[in-house]
Amino acid sequence: MSGQGVAQILVYSGVLVLLALPLGLYMAWAFERFSPRGILGAIEKGFYRVVRTDPEQEQDWKSYGTTVLVFSVLFWGLLYLILRAQSHLFLNPDHMKAVPAHLSLNTAASFITNTNWQFYAGESTMSYLSQMAGLAVQNFVSAAVGMAVLVAVVRGIARRSSGTLGNFWRDLYRSLVYVLLPLAVIATAILIWQGVPQTFHGHATATTLQGATQTIARGPVASQVAIKQLGTNGGGFYNSNSAAPPENPTGLSNLIEMLSLLLIPAAQVFMFGRMVLARRHAWAVFAAMFVVFAIGLAVNLPAEQHGSQVLRASGVNITQGHGQSGGNMADKEVRFGQAATSNWTVSTSDASNGAVNSGFDAQTPAGGAVPLVNLFLGEVIFGGVGSGLFTMFFYIILAVFIAGLMVGRTPEWLGKKIEAREIKLAALGALFVPTMVLTLTALSIVTKSGLASIYNSGAHGFTETLYAYNSQSNNNGSAFAGFGLTNFSAYFGAVAMLLGRFVPMFAALALGGMLAKKNTHPFSAGTFRTDGPTFVFLLIGVIALTAGLMILPALTLGPIVEGLMH
Amino acid sequence: MKNLVSSVIAIVLITAVFGFAYPAVMTAFGQVAFPHQANGSLIERNGKVVGSKLAAQAFTGPRYFHERPSATTPPYNAGGTTFANLGPTNPDLAKNIRAAALAILKLERPYNPGLTIHDIPVDAVTTSGSGIDPDISPAYAQLQARRIAAVRQLSLAAVRKLIAQNTDGRSWGFFGEPGVNVLELNLGLNSLRGK
Q: Residues B15, B63: one domain?
């Protein structure tokens, strides 16, 4: 680990906070106060007219949730049809065949749920139409849906004695047009400048210096990469995702893509703080997230720089310096080296993004355990766009509940009494996904068809399986990518992604609906403070205990055995 | 029912704007502002495309600098990138590293008798993240310099100078790590004249 590497990570963190804070305040303004006039206003009114909604007509949580569900299911159907029919449709210069049924089903589920798990190699499977009008549209929409639901839940927390949470179509429009689109345009422009292709021409063909023929995949890459990072989607244009040089050509493009992937999840914490008028509480939540993020880096970077046992035993030079970054370079790229790879690994597994700039399967046991544990924390350390913070609310409620038990008072959060129904919903939201991960992993390793997906044998193969269901259930999408496509893994994966998305989402909406109905109570001397270091410590503890205790037995079968083996 | 109608209309609109208009506008921007990058950073010599700055290609034999190992099929397939996915305890990993190191020693030792396995930088024996990593570490380029100088009848200083010229530093001198673009390096080599 070099000082230079650590400095890169510190600068990244600093820039992230500097960008996230104003963006969060802007988002609060764009959702709650902004009333566009002129051309912007006319376009927005036009949208409401054609989708036949009155933006002033608000929905209760059930109605809001139903609209989300209908919209998502229909979009899932459209995406499935595009993938199945791509060979007969236009914008297919490289003559890609129809995507098989089980793969289409899994992929459609993957993209509408903001997971972007990929059982396919993009550059050799998907037509430009599928990439652009199918998958990249979902990168916008699944993120916007997540953001809309978050805004609705936050309104529930902020409001008093109210029955409604907002209008879904309005929230969807605002996140798409005023948050995601401008950021995506800026990021795309920078990425093209740095070398990411943006063309409708098909593959280029080169004759190499030694006379061989080389096919070079390209396409409308930059516009898709920008939103796959910003929307915490993660599905790459190329199979090797942002490790592929055309998807991530330089140290600067890597920085922009890393900033993009944590930017909105970090900003939404400040948006929440502004909307509920609890700035200090938002900073406390942010601090808890940041501490866990930093712990991940403090484990992953030294482990990868130290290298694997195999590399150290081989005798080659893995020492940093003298013209190399050293360490475990297996499945990593020279232009990123250890620090920028580690920074990415931790960010992407915290953010529910799932894009990678190296192959996780090849990380050391301790290094690879970091993304695995991060996924198990339920994607609340920043987490997905929208989903990260509304899942964090479950843990916050559990934390104030436990604090309430300790001091013997009714737990309160931001002036609202937390009662049995809220605790039940929070427990459901927090525990549903880890339970599903363990169940699906168990099913997969005791059945023949489940075992067929494993690529590396032994304990590492178990880790691959655990990671696969963990990643899909938590809507992350990164992989120990040796894990293979079978009918079993395609269908169970699709179930994991859909339930992992919509069960916590509905729990959060219900929670928002219940909190909206309550009245606030003034802060008293006996109220547990949710804006100090004690709360930060307690929140981290609750996350570690709930998620950590569920994962520990599984970890011992995977990375821990593997680490002890050598 | 109302949800159904609204959703269908919204889906059509959103697909039109975010699926077609947005990538089309960005493509127009890219083609006008940065046409070289937008079309894949292709490198041409005498009007023919010889490769891309962003894709490694296969180099064999003693006359060229070699790339890092690649896990794609065939190796350096810029139409199907992939990682190797060999876990840290997979026996194939140790085998592959050993084989790669021995191949390097066999190739370089005639020109560099003192070379041992401890001199080989780790990126030279490990597969890259994409299988088409266009860069090698400056250390690996230096390791190959003596062979290139001997075979091409160049001075070692001239080869080292060429390596320095083709080393991409960190972005803004700060982000990422330095790397030597092998295709550009070998193109530079071809345009140098031997003594």
A: no
